[in-house]
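User: Predict the complex.
Assistant: Input components as received:
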Amino acid sequence: DAKTTQPTSMDCAEGRAANLPCNHSTISGNEYVYWYRQIHSQGPQYIIHGLKNNETNEMASLIITEDRKSSTLILPHATLRDTAVYYCIVRVVGLNTGNQFYFGTGTSLTVIP
Amino acid sequence: NAGVMQNPRHLVRRRGQEARLRCSPMKGHSHVYWYRQLPEEGLKFMVYLQKENIIDESGMPKERFSAEFPKEGPSILRIQQVVRGDSAAYFCASSPLDTQYFGPGTRLTVL
């Protein structure tokens, strides 16, 4: 269901860049890649999304490979507050459905002091 | 602009009782999604609604669960005759069209 594959967990030193990979080899041409994160038991927080071009906002950068089969979320200067589970999601738009999001198990990122 | 509101934040019910979870979307958002998260698991899609219409309920159990999003007022997720397996965090998300913004969730505990 999830259509994405992420490492289960990663560590990153505080102040360094955190690079979180995601494979989505079966992505269709009109499907977007979204990234969310969930800090502890809070509601998921939107980070960024993209179709094929690289994207950047105040939180992160999203690098999508040219064949769109994988992407990387980059947190340029990780802080302790970035410790969370990060979900890479492919947005499926069906004929009679909405923008269903399939959440996998995500990557548990731990930022180490 | 207030974010997505959910209430109650915590709900305790005994087996067989009914649980009603409310979700007020962000202003201007006409799309509402409900997800369930069991402990140590990812979020699972349950139902997608637009005003007064259920668009997709493929993730919702056929029995005991229902959802509505009336013309006026919040979206309601209703669970009848709750069982212990219904204990979970229930998240609502609203969307203007594509990006979904999540509420803080309702944690349901069934005793």
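The first strand of chain B starts at residue 5 and ends at 7.
Let me know if you want any component modeled separately.
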